[in-house]
Amino acid sequence: MSAASASPFLANIPSPPQGVWYIGPIPLRAYALCIIAGIVLAVWISNRRWIARGGREGTVVDVAVWAVPFGLIGGRLYHVATDWYKYFGPDKNPLDALKVWEGGLGIWGAVALGAVGAWIGCRQRGVPLPAFADTVAPGLVLAQAVGRLGNWFNQELYGGPTTVPWGLEIYRRIDPETGLADPIAGVAVDPTPITVVHPTFLYELVWNVGVFLLVLWADRKFRMGHGRVFALYVAGYTAGRVWIEMMRSDEATHILGIRINVFTSLLVFLAAVIYLLVVRGKREDPALLAGKPYPEDLPSTVEPKSDESKSEESKSGGPNSGDSKTTEDEAAPDSKDSNTEPPGETSPDQDSSGSDEDEASSAPSDKDAKSQS
Q1: In whole angstroms, what is the distance from residue 353 CA to residue 346 CA?
Q2: Cβ neighbours, 10 Å, residue 262
Q3: What's the CA gap between 349 and 317, in Å, rounded?
Q4: In the chain, beta strands by DSSP E
Q5: Phi, psi (5° rounding) for residue 300?
């Protein structure tokens, strides 16, 4: 009798029959699509928050160009380092470590190396990294929630057998061409589950959504800054990861009989809480978030005039030269001598028209000046 038939509940959660579809020879992997959807959602939310805090549009994308690749590499490196036996043990193929599409991204490596990429991007844009981290924190944890759907498609990251009504049904997947077992790229041909387990991926998904709401509320209420929003996200996520990790039944590296990610979660949680308690200060000045100017932000210069326009101006005594005498006369109507320039020196308008200088110097009164003009 299978675990499913032994369960008194009928409302179990079915697993997808497959996680990979083919468009011709091109595989369309649900895990990769979920990761991409999470990244797009995180960038969109972060961009809106960045602009609301005083930053400019486009900065988040510029920094993400560095942070996302670094994060993916870091996440994979952490997974391979902690689960090395899956790739370097007996009868294992080390090249499988490059198959990111089959799952296996450690959040700790993703955050650590992703922060390095974000630091590079922030330096290039001239914006403070702590303020940027506070801005992207809610989007990051929501992206993690979306990414957990990829684990559902891959039938991974689940717990032990259970009889709860929300138990997850696990199917046997096979390669249709060879008939061999293929848990990742295979297809479930038999709808009868081989076991019903705790959907720990779903527990983490729901927990992450809760952390997302908590971080948004705290940031809005207390106007946190200097990396404290990011620290709250880390503390909230790791608090849930500890108990969820202890429920998982998939293979993992153990220390003293405890999964290594439990120890990592506890250490990171303590570091985040200490940061929250120690760091103080008001939110960063919005002016700091503007960053370095883009080329289009630089003040425009007057375009050089062509030789033809210069020639026209020289003939007419410069721009608005026709009004210069009238303005000069109106400004000093009682002056007996409108030419106040020292001998031997001329103004730009006088230099451009010698006849004007002669007329102005011989004008005894405003009346005579008007008659000459």
Answers
A1: 10
A2: 19
A3: 6
A4: 13-14, 20-23, 26-29, 168-170, 173-174, 187-188, 195-197, 254-255, 258-259
A5: -75, 145
Cβ–Cβ < 8 Å for 105, 68: no
3-state secondary structure of 126: coil
Q: Collapsing DSSP states into helix, strand and coil, what is residue 164?
A: coil
Q: What is the pLDDT of residues 88-119, one digit of tens each?
A: 878 888 888 888 877 788 888 999 999 999 99
pLDDT of residue 36 exceeding 90 = yes
All residues at 6 or more sequence positions from 92 whose CB lies less than 8 Å from its CB, including other chains: 85, 86
- Kindly report the number of other CB atoms within 10 A of residue 361's CB atom: 12
- Closest among 225, 186, 227, 169 to 6, alpha carbons compared: 169
Answer whether residue 7 shows pLDDT above 70.
no
Instruction: Give the separation between CA 227 and CA 192, rounded to whole angstroms.
Output: 49
pLDDT, residue 202, reads 97
The answer to whether 173 and 188 have CB atoms below 8 angstroms apart is yes
Judge whether 228 is annotated as a binding position. no
pLDDT digits (tens, 9 = 90+) for 64-92: 999 999 999 999 999 898 888 888 878 88
Query: How far apart are the C-alpha atoms of 309 and 321, rounded to whole Å?
Result: 14
Tell me: pLDDT of 58 over 90.
yes
Contacts of 105 (CB under 8 A, 6+ apart): 35, 72, 75, 76, 78, 79, 147
